[in-house]
């Protein structure tokens, strides 16, 4: 059965903005963000190749794919298909300098 694995940095990427959203708009928005990330990851678990391949210079990042978080389209899940599902590498806002983060 497929599974979703989250790297520790991916969890930080999820909970830091959730804490900010909670402070700005309350628990509901923060919970919706976390739920949206989890639901998007479950979709990827079942269909790991629906995300677009990323083009990074580092060879260890050659299998990284990207998909927008459902309902939070400015947020992106970076993940790798693995033998038993997917591994979420990062969850980042699209306005960030993504190239410098991954290079």
Look up the CATH topology: YaeB-like fold
What is the topology, as strand order, of the major beta sheet? 1-5-4-3-2
The CATH class assignment is Alpha Beta
The termini sit apart by 33 Å
Strand content: 25-35%
Overall pLDDT confidence: 93
Radius of gyration: 13 Å
Structural class, please? alpha+beta
Helix-residue proportion: 40-55%
- What is the CATH H-level superfamily? RelE-like
| SSE succession | EHHEEEEH
Descriptive report:
Helix 1 (8-25) packs antiparallel against helix 2. This protein has 3 helices and 5 strands; from the N terminus they run βααββββα. The mean pLDDT is 93. It has helices at residues 8-25, 27-46, 98-102, and strands at residues 3-6, 52-53, 65-69, 72-82, 85-93. The longest helix is centred in the middle third of the chain and has 20 residues, at 27-46. A 5-stranded mixed β-sheet has the order 1-5-4-3-2. It has a single domain, classed as YaeB-like fold (2-Layer Sandwich). A hairpin with a 2-residue loop joins strand 4 (72-82) and strand 5 (85-93). The protein has 103 residues and is of the alpha+beta class. The radius of gyration is 13 Å and the shape is globular.
